[in-house]
């Protein structure tokens, strides 16, 4: 009764011959749009179909803003577990894991280079490093970058992408709010332009300090911007939140941002603003 029995096994591929599809070839945006990873990179990591801005790090932002080469400040500055903080995992171990995983020393990188032929100092946060949390190293590197701007009369750009203060450093982390704000006051006294770019997400202590202290505060489309998260605000106030609460568009409408710019126009818009305030020919 061969009709009812499989005389030959189905066509199979030996396990050792199977090949997985390489990861990273495709990206799926939150709206379900599929885009080729290479095309995504060429489009400044913005989904062409729905305009979704994928989170990127300091490496990508430096490539976008600087013309060519740039000089990085304090490349080897790292955090210490001064308080011997222990939660579910020792802070020292978290720092080690984050460094190995991201190849970064901490949650911010600072550099100086040319942008459209003009000198520019840029500090950019990396969310991949412990949620872009702000600790003593973040505050110190930003402060030193501002000092370089003041000393050399160079405009300063801060790119925020953070979950807020780093709880493992407790008061040391909170002190950075005052420290960076004081440095920005010195920058203002020196009449040097400061542009604050809020990206997704900009929350907590960063919003309560340098992220909202720019001469001009700008954002990418759709970025989450706020102090406490929507769930915390809802639980605290006991009220339903408006649609789109804490999105860049909502924040712009309520006067906390000056404008929103797509990532591909970021370099042009920043330099246009600097040309205007510095009374230079527009390039």
TrEMBL record:
Molecular function terms, GO-annotated: acetyl-CoA carboxylase activity; ATP binding; carboxyl- or carbamoyltransferase activity
The organism's place on the tree of life at top rank: Bacteria
GO biological process, one term: fatty acid biosynthetic process
Matches recorded under PROSITE patterns: COA_CT_NTER
Record keywords: ATP-binding, Cytoplasm, Fatty acid biosynthesis, Fatty acid metabolism, Ligase, Lipid biosynthesis, Lipid metabolism, Nucleotide-binding, Transferase
Pathway annotation: Lipid metabolism; malonyl-CoA biosynthesis; malonyl-CoA from acetyl-CoA: step 1/1
Subcellular location: Cytoplasm
Domain CoA carboxyltransferase N-terminal: 24-283
Family to which the UniProt record says this protein belongs: Belongs to the AccD/PCCB family.
Record's subunit section: Acetyl-CoA carboxylase is a heterohexamer composed of biotin carboxyl carrier protein (AccB), biotin carboxylase (AccC) and two subunits each of ACCase subunit alpha (AccA) and ACCase subunit beta (AccD).
Protein name (record): Acetyl-coenzyme A carboxylase carboxyl transferase subunit beta
Organism: Flavobacterium cerinum
Source taxonomy: Bacteria, Pseudomonadati, Bacteroidota, Flavobacteriia, Flavobacteriales
């Amino acid at each position: 009764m061969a009709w009812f029995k499989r005389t030959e096994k189905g066509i199979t591929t030996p396990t050792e011959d199977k090949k997985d599809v390489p990861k990273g070839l495709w990206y799926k945006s939150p709206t379900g749009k599929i885009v080729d990873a290479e095309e995504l990179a060429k489009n400044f990591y913005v989904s062409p179909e729905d305009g979704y801005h994928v989170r990127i790090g300091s490496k990508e932002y430096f490539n976008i803003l600087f013309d060519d080469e740039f000089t990085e400040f304090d490349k080897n500055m790292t955090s210490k577990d001064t308080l011997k903080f222990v939660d579910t995992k020792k802070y020292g171990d978290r720092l080690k894991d984050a460094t190995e995983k991201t190849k970064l020393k901490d949650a911010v990188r600072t550099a100086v280079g040319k942008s459209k032929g003009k000198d520019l100092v840029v500090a950019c946060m990396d969310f991949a490093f412990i949620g872009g949390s702000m600790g003593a190293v973040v505050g110190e590197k930003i402060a030193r970058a501002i000092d370089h701007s003041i000393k050399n009369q160079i405009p300063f750009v801060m790119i925020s992408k953070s979950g807020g203060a780093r709880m493992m450093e407790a008061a040391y982390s909170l002190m950075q709010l005052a420290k960076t704000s004081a440095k920005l006051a010195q920058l203002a006294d020196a009449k040097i332009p400061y542009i604050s770019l809020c990206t997704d997400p900009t929350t907590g202590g960063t919003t309560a300090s340098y992220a909202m202290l720019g001469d001009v505060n700008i954002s990418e489309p759709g970025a989450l911007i706020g102090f406490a998260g929507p769930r915390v605000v809802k639980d605290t106030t006991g009220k339903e939140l408006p649609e789109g609460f804490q999105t860049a568009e909502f924040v712009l409408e309520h006067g906390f941002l000056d404008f929103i710019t797509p990532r591909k126009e970021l370099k042009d818009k920043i330099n246009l603003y600097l040309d205007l305030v510095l009374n230079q020919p527009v390039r």
